[in-house]
């Protein structure tokens, strides 16, 4: 279940981001507005609670990059908040 | 020779102080001076001479300003190009300006393989750094302040970008006027969030004139801007209000050290009161409004920190400010007569900052100039007894999207190019992040192929010009003369 694709559709109003743009396509090359990429990062921060730094952003280009980042930070965030694990 | 004087003075006065910093490196005034002169000789050796055009296609980085200054040093005109435009848009500009050389980042140049330019030079490849290396100390030509120095492009109501030709006198006039009222000094560090291809780059030139350091971002993101302010201990930041809103929303705004900021310079769009209030509270620095227009040399009006309202007292729009020394403004009525004191009229401008004219377009130049030599801004406003300009509306049909002008007629023209589109109308609608965004009303002959229309728009228009919303309707309301009646469009 993609986290990023619904956000892209929400931000741009372009339904192709739901399934018409490949996971490994550079989002800038997909023709997305640079302002919408800014808003995507802010939305990810807002909805997941993770901070994305300028340095982090250098490595984020594709939907797959963003998905992996959110999954990794989400896991890190959960383990930090709940160090003993559990259901 | 304003730009050459600027370089010479700052090399003499602040040789070891950082002039420019970007995402990759920094250079001192001495290094910047040397590099500009060597590059000038290198361009001359390539055959670039007085009156030739040097186009630049790049994100913001030091080499961009090196190229601007080097072209100016040999009497050539630098032509910044918006790298986010679609290929036909860039090709159209290049076709009209006919540059002898296009300098650009290799990745950007690859996106535009068919530009009709004499020569292409990748500024991020070693050959660029070597330009001029073998030219020794050959004398550079004298350049007059009245020689054109740049062709800056604006959007246009006709749907075709216009080249604004400015001379060094214009840059000097605006810079000296600005320095007199804003008073930046050599200790200032300005983070420039606005693209150097935009007319607003005159603001950055003005701070460089003071000997300040300019920090360039390879494209705005709030995270980059916040990191740059903290890393360079910036005293000033230059942005459009929507950028400030994004910076305040970023989580790193709560952790970055922004305590060195003295002034936030903002312009190109109205400041939303809630953004101003939050920024003033959280940043605790001054705010300076910049009102400018490429055709009159850039930033010709400013409202300083002392005249900004208290954050909780922004009852109406913040005034644009007072005209800078050296330039004149007035409000005029529909017949070009000066409006009564305090009455709303079109803001017109006169002074040495004004452009020489539109590139190869005397008819358009005449259309924007009043018979007695004032330049029309297309903005409606009034001037209060204290000389402060209050903008109230636009007389031109334009959508102001995050500081960038989008002309509905241009978007409508592109929509109508699609074979399935029978008619179209475009208006600006409010947007919390961008201020306004384009909305298109489209009439098609049958079931619309939405994906095909999006692809068509992407092929012809820069992303910021594309309609954020498209509504399919039966008919575009028009008056008997065929003009679109936008107030009758569905809401």
Automatic annotation (TrEMBL), chain A:
It holds the Pfam family PP-binding. SUPFAM superfamilies: ACP-like. InterPro entries: ACP-like_sf, PP-bd_ACP. Residues 1-74 form the Carrier domain. This is Acyl carrier protein. It comes from Actinacidiphila cocklensis.
TrEMBL record, chain B:
Residues 410-483 form the AMP-binding enzyme C-terminal domain. Keywords: Ligase. InterPro entries: AMP-bd_C, AMP-bd_C_sf, AMP-dep_synth/lig_dom, ANL_N_sf, ATP-dep_AMP-bd_enzyme. It comes from the Bacteria. Gene3D superfamilies: 3.30.300.30, N-terminal domain of ligase-like. Residues 8-359 form the AMP-dependent synthetase/ligase domain. GO terms for molecular function: acid-thiol ligase activity. PANTHER family: LONG-CHAIN-FATTY-ACID--COA LIGASE, NONRIBOSOMAL PEPTIDE SYNTHASE PES1 (EUROFUNG)-RELATED. This is 2-succinylbenzoate--CoA ligase. It comes from Actinacidiphila cocklensis.
């Amino acid at each position: 279940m993609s986290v990023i694709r619904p956000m892209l559709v929400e931000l741009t109003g372009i339904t192709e981001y739901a399934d018409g743009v490949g996971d490994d396509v550079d989002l800038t090359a997909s023709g997305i507005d640079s302002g919408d990429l800014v808003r995507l990062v802010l939305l990810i921060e807002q909805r997941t609670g993770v901070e994305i730094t300028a340095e982090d952003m250098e490595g984020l280009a594709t939907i797959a990059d963003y998905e992996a980042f959110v999954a990794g930070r989400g896991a890190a965030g959960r383990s930090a908040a709940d160090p003993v694990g559990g259901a | 020779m304003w730009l050459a004087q600027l370089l010479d003075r700052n090399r003499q006065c602040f040789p070891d102080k950082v002039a420019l910093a970007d995402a990759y490196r920094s250079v001192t005034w001495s290094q910047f001076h040397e590099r500009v002169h060597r590059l000038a000789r290198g361009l001359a050796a390539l055959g670039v001479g007085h009156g030739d055009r040097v186009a630049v296609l790049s994100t913001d980085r030091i080499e961009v300003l090196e190229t601007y200054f080097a072209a100016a040093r040999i009497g050539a005109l630098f032509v910044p190009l918006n790298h986010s435009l679609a290929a036909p848009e860039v090709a159209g500009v290049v076709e009209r300006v006919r540059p002898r050389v296009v300098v650009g980042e290799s990745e950007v140049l690859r996106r535009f393989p068919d530009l009709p330019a004499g020569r292409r030079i990748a500024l991020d490849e070693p050959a660029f750094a070597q330009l001029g290396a073998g030219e020794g100390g050959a004398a550079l030509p004298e350049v007059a302040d009245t020689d054109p120095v740049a062709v800056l492009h604006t959007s246009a109501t006709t749907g075709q970008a216009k080249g604004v030709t400015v001379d060094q006198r214009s840059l000097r006039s605006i810079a000296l006027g600005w320095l007199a009222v804003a008073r930046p000094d050599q200790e200032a560090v300005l983070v420039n969030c606005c693209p150097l291809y935009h007319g607003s780059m005159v603001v950055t030139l003005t701070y460089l004139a003071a000997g300040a350091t300019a920090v360039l971002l390879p494209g705005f993101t709030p995270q980059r801007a916040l990191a740059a302010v903290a890393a360079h201990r910036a005293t000033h930041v230059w942005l459009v209000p929507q950028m400030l809103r994004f910076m305040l929303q970023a989580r790193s705004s709560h952790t970055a050290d922004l305590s060195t900021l003295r002034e936030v310079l903002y312009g190109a769009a109205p400041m939303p009161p809630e953004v101003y209030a939050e920024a003033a509270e959280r940043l605790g620095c001054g705010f300076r409004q910049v009102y400018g227009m490429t055709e009159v040399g850039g930033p010709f009006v400013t409202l300083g920190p002392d005249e900004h309202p208290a954050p909780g007292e922004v009852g109406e729009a913040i005034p644009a400010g007072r005209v800078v020394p050296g330039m004149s403004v007035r409000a005029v009525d529909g017949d070009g007569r000066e409006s009564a004191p305090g009455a709303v009229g079109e803001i017109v401008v006169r002074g040495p900052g004004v452009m020489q004219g539109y590139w190869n377009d005397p008819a358009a130049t005449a259309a924007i100039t009043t018979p007695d030599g004032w330049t029309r801004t297309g903005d409606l406003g009034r001037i209060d007894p204290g000389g402060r300009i209050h903008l109230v509306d636009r007389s031109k049909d334009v959508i102001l999207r995050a500081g960038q002008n989008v002309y509905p007629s241009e978007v409508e023209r592109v929509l109508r190019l699609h074979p399935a589109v029978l008619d179209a109308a475009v208006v600006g609608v409010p947007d919390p992040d961008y201020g306004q965004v384009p909305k298109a009303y489209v009439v098609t002959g049958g079931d619309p192929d939405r994906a095909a229309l999006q692809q068509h728009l992407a092929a012809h228009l820069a992303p910021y010009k594309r309609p954020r919303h498209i509504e399919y309707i039966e008919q575009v309301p028009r008056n008997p003369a065929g003009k679109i009646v936008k107030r009758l469009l569905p809401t």
